[in-house]
């Protein structure tokens, strides 16, 4: 297990626990020869570390392709030994965070060591770079030794301070765990997660508190594992124009009764064909709900959405505890709520119906055949059509379109509340010029006239208005005006023919 980053209050640790100090270039076939050294004789301290009652000494060693890289690595090695001597145990496999040292001067090196050990700007510690020694070899690689020393008095004080600090951190982390338990008992899932994260951060700073860290880690996993997500309605459609039917998500936990508030959600589409947005944000509200809608879609017949808890507040774990982060990432996917929405035109998916009437000889009558034919035509184009039967007793004896419209839509609103749009057709039909059968548009046909002499045809002209009306507001959102004419052997044939001509001219978008 990779635990949280090291005791940052005390040390800024660099790549000193896991780095390989031997970075010598690939060896040639010939034996290496030393071609240069920083002094004629190698100092005694590279073979035997000095000892003193007042100071502790440490010798760092490194091989590298350049003197600068060798100096960095050897200083890290020396500081690693100093830290271990003090008794501090790093709680992470420390990654390389080493600062570049552009200068070869002893003062720059000493400053770097001080910053590693105690922190930038500290005036409480005296770490001295006592000496350095290097050798250059025939493969152009360097072996560099660094000798540092630190007062024993400071080391003793630091050990005592660390002991007290570790105990303080342990007590603080355990207090966070207790607070997490308390809010859990009251149904505070989101707050409990926050307390567990605080316990992780504090207990992860020292190896002595790894048991507390493990407890916080396990509790966090159990809390998140208790979460589940449920659609509280039945959305079916996302709109090509953007938007969708409401998507109402309830957030539940097996640790509490009912839904839970304050949980931040994340959403994703299987093939990135759409995105969701929370109407009031993506944190569950006081009733444990998040209200989503689709904000955009690509050219697709359907979208496959998933919703689960967000990983945003766990992002620091990527570096500090990668294993735990990957565990939570897997849980997020496994616990996700998944659902499919069909992508349709926004107008098409709204429950709609058709009502059509005709005024002929000052009498109002339903255009039933036209209504049925238009409804079928719209269903074929994937409109969400609802059949509404209008009783004869509801139809007013009026030729005023506004009166008829008001009466019919009020009835539909009361009896069929699921209908949101009415395609309302209203026609005025009048007979036009009566033609002899042997005449077509005023031209005499001698053959027809000789066969059915004395017969005539009825001709009708219809002016038809089709209005798209919002049932709730009674406002017209769109409309078409159509003029058509037709003839027949009698009035009924002429009326049927003119209805067919109107239907042909209706444009369904």
Could you explain the architecture of this structure?
The protein has three domains: 34-157, no CATH class; 230-311 and 330-346, Immunoglobulins (Immunoglobulin-like); 350-505, Double Stranded RNA Binding Domain (2-Layer Sandwich). Helices cover 33% and strands 28% of the residues. It is elongated. A hairpin with a 2-residue loop joins β13 (352-360) and β14 (363-366). It is of the alpha+beta class.
Quick description:
About 35% of the residues lie in helices and about 30% in strands. The protein is an alpha+beta fold and about 500 residues long.
Q: C-alpha Rg, in Å?
A: 42 Å
Tell me, briefly, the overall form: elongated
Report the strand count: 20
Share of residues in strands: 25-35%
Q: Please report the distance between the alpha carbons of the first and last residues.
A: 61 Å
Q: Please summarize the sheet with the most strands.
A: 6 strands, mixed
Q: Please report the number of helical segments.
A: 12
CATH topology of the largest domain: Double Stranded RNA Binding Domain
Q: What is the level 1 CATH name of the largest domain? A: Alpha Beta
Q: What does the average pLDDT come to?
A: 84
By CATH, the architecture of the largest domain is named 2-Layer Sandwich
Unreliable spans: 1-19, 90-110, 113-123, 438-452
The total number of structural domains is 3
Tell me the structural class. alpha+beta
Give the helix level as a range of percent: 25-40%
Topology diagram in text:
Elements: E1 34-37, E2 55-64, H1 67-86, H2 106-117, E3 128-137, E4 142-151, H3 152-185, H4 189-203, H5 210-225, E5 227-231, E6 237-239, E7 247-253, E8 265-269, E9 274-278, E10 289-297, E11 302-309, H6 317-320, H7 322-334, E12 337-344, H8 346-349, E13 352-360, E14 363-366, H9 368-380, H10 401-415, E15 421-431, E16 435-436, E17 439-440, E18 443-444, H11 446-451, E19 456-470, E20 476-488, H12 491-505
Parallel strand pairs: 6-12, 13-15
Antiparallel strand pairs: 1-3, 2-4, 3-4, 5-7, 7-10, 8-11, 9-10, 11-12, 13-14, 15-19, 16-19, 17-18, 19-20
Helix pairs in contact: 1-2, 3-4, 3-5, 4-5, 5-7
């Amino acid at each position: 297990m990779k635990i949280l980053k090291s005791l940052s209050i005390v040390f800024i640790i660099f790549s000193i626990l896991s780095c390989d100090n031997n970075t010598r270039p690939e060896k040639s076939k010939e034996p290496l020869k030393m071609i240069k050294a920083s002094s004629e004789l190698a100092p005694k301290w590279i073979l035997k570390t000095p000892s003193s009652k007042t100071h502790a000494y440490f010798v760092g060693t490194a091989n590298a392709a350049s003197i600068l890289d060798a100096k960095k690595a050897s200083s890290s090695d020396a500081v690693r030994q100093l830290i271990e001597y003090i008794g501090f145990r790093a709680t992470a496999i420390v990654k390389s965070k080493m600062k570049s040292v552009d200068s070869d001067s002893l003062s720059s090196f000493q400053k770097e060591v001080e910053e590693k050990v105690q922190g930038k700007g500290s005036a409480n510690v005296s770490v001295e770079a006592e000496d350095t020694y290097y050798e250059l070899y025939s493969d152009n690689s360097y072996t560099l030794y660094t000798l540092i020393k630190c007062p024993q008095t400071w080391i003793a004080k630091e050990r005592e301070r660390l002991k007290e600090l570790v105990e303080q951190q342990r007590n603080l982390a355990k207090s966070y765990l207790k607070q997490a338990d308390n809010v859990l008992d009251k149904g505070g899932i989101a707050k409990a997660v926050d307390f567990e994260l605080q316990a992780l951060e504090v207990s992860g700073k020292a190896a002595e508190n790894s048991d507390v860290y493990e407890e916080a880690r396990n509790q966090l996993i159990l809390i998140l594992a208790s979460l589940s997500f449920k659609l509280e309605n039945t959305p079916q459609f996302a709109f090509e124009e953007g938007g969708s039917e409401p998507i109402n998500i309830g957030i539940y936990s097996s640790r509490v009764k009912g839904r839970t508030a304050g949980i931040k959600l994340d959403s994703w589409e299987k093939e990135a064909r759409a995105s969701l947005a929370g109407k009031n944000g993506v944190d569950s509200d006081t009733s444990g709900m998040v209200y989503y809608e689709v904000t955009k879609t690509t050219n697709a017949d359907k979208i496959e959405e998933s919703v689960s808890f967000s990983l945003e507040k766990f992002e620091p774990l990527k570096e500090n505890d990668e294993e735990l982060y990957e565990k939570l990432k897997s849980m997020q996917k496994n616990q996700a709520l998944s659902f499919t929405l069909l992508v349709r035109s926004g107008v098409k998916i709204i429950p709609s119906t058709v009502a059509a009437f005709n005024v002929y000889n000052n009498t109002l009558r339903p255009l039933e055949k036209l209504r049925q034919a238009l409804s079928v035509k719209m269903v074929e184009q994937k409109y969400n059509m609802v059949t509404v039967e209008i009783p004869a007793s509801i139809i007013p004896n009026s030729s005023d379109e506004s009166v008829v419209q008001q009466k019919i839509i009020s009835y539909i609103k009361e009896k069929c509340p699921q209908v949101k749009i009415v395609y309302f057709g209203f026609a005025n039909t009048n007979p036009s010029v009566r033609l002899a059968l042997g005449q077509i548009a005023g031209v005499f046909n001698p053959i027809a006239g000789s066969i059915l002499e004395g017969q005539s045809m009825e001709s009708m002209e219809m002016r038809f208005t089709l209005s798209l009306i919002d049932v709730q507001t009674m406002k017209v959102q769109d409309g078409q005006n159509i003029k058509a004419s037709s003839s027949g052997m009698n009035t009924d044939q002429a009326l049927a023919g003119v209805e067919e001509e109107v239907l042909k001219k209706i444009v369904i978008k």
